[in-house]
Amino acid sequence: RVNVKVLEHGVHSGEAGGVVPSSFRILRQLLSRIEDERTGELIPQLLRPEIPQFFIDGANALDSQLRDPLARAFPIVDGLALDGDGAQRILAQTWKSSLSAIGISGIPDVDEGGNVLRANTQLKISLRIPPSVDPLAAQDAIVELLSNDPPYGALVEIECEEPAAGWVANIPAPWLMDA
């Protein structure tokens, strides 16, 4: 969880807007430290390890046999463009980090929202990491990027759950690959 606090309580936006920075804007700026919002690529090098060639070859082989299986795997809306090609999508799902916003608080429902500069915005994020990345090192890197030198000197509070490692099967022995 990442909580950005700018006020002790909400203040009418006609008074505070343009004077007090928005907690939502600051949260967006913080997220841009870890994810390129145009591509979804995670920025810290730690979260972008080299993918072993065996798995690249496997993704290409799987894609050539199943013809882009992930393009049909999800209930996407008409016209949505997916990232990459078939093999790239397989690698993105299995070997690349991804960031998801899985909960938010501090923002009223659209039917209830009013002209208030809110005191805080809290976001729960989930970070999927590649199998070769140490989960504690990844957590430490993300916490450091989000908490160091916050924009405008905002109060940034971070709570982490227990991190878990990605998983990958061992590369089969050569005799099994030749069978």
Description:
The chain is α+β, with helices and mostly antiparallel strands and 179 residues long. It has two domains: 130 residues, Alpha-Beta Plaits, CATH 3.30.70; 44 residues, no CATH class. Helices cover 32% and strands 16% of the residues. It is built from six helices and six strands. A four-stranded antiparallel sheet has the order 3-5-1-6. It has a two-stranded antiparallel ribbon with strand order 2-4. Helix 2 crosses helix 5 and helix 3 packs across helix 4. The longest helix is centred in the first third of the chain and has 14 residues.
- Principal-axes shape call: elongated
Beta-strand residue percentage? 15-25%
What is the N-to-C order of secondary-structure elements (H for helix, E for strand)?
Answer: EEHHHHEEEHEH
Oligomer: single chain
Helical content (DSSP H or I, runs of 4+): 25-40%
Structure in a nutshell:
GO terms for molecular function: metal ion binding; peptidase activity. The chain is built from six helices and six strands, in the order E-E-H-H-H-H-E-E-E-H-E-H. It is of the alpha+beta class and 179 residues long.
Descriptive labels:
four-stranded antiparallel β-sheet, two-stranded antiparallel sheet, metal-binding, 179 residues, alpha+beta, 2 domains, Alpha-Beta Plaits, peptidase activity, 6 helices
Describe the SSE topology.
Blueprint: E1 2-5, E2 11-12, H1 13-16, H2 23-34, H3 53-66, H4 86-95, E3 98-105, E4 116-117, E5 120-128, H5 135-147, E6 155-158, H6 174-178
Antiparallel strand pairs: 1-5, 1-6, 2-4, 3-5
Helix pairs in contact: 2-5, 3-4
